[in-house]
């Protein structure tokens, strides 16, 4: 990575990083090191690990201070919806981080520069670099601008963070003051690859069925089908 590329990255993220090697490390995918044993920098995996924790704390503080009226359960669901791989990927894509990645030839041929998981990991690594090189406040500002922006507020305002199961529960509780129940109707397949067929019931009446490789996933699928049936 040359000085021009480093300057471009700093302009993109809006921060002048003092430790340029640390910034470069954020873009080193482990595949690159497999083909370049003598490369002087490590992969971005440890930065990604740290960035994930920093990102979690930033999101928690943001929600706690800006939305004090919400419950801990809501915080958990909201955080899961905003720090998921797809959201981080979208933020990395807007910053064009894939352009600067160190990738093996195989990853390059497989469009690794636009790979969802690789870009999401790179975004977390950049968050860690900002935290280490600058401070927590700078990392908080970066995440607020490039990940949250208007997206997180819209997710909360429109209840987009709620799972199908939660949405169904809130609807029935608000309208009828009663909750749905879930029952396993059938389970088949070997232990390591079992498939569950679950029914969601309201006042002992079957509303919909769902399937999944775990009871939770089957319940979520059943709730999603129920929402469609009830046209919610």
Automatic annotation (TrEMBL):
The active site is at 52, 124. InterPro entries: dsRBD_dom, RNase_III, RNase_III_dom, RNase_III_sf. Residues 6-135 form the RNase III domain. Gene3D superfamilies: 3.30.160.20, Ribonuclease III domain. GO terms for cellular component: cytoplasm. Signal peptide: none annotated. Keywords: Cytoplasm, Endonuclease, Hydrolase, Magnesium, Metal-binding, mRNA processing, Nuclease, RNA-binding, rRNA processing, rRNA-binding, tRNA processing. Residues 163-232 form the DRBM domain. The keyword Nucleus does not apply. It is found in: Cytoplasm. It catalyses: Endonucleolytic cleavage to 5'-phosphomonoester. Its cofactor is Mg(2+). Pfam families: dsrm, Ribonucleas_3_3. Mg(2+) binds at residues 48, 121, 124. Its main location: cytoplasm. SMART domains: DSRM, RIBOc. PROSITE patterns: DS_RBD, RNASE_3_1, RNASE_3_2. One of its GO terms (biological process) is tRNA processing. CDD domains: DSRM_RNAse_III_family, RIBOc. One of its GO terms (molecular function) is metal ion binding. Homodimer. Belongs to the ribonuclease III family. Digests double-stranded RNA. Involved in the processing of primary rRNA transcript to yield the immediate precursors to the large and small rRNAs (23S and 16S). Processes some mRNAs, and tRNAs when they are encoded in the rRNA operon. Processes pre-crRNA and tracrRNA of type II CRISPR loci if present in the organism. This is Ribonuclease 3. The lineage of its organism: Bacteria, Candidatus Roizmaniibacteriota.
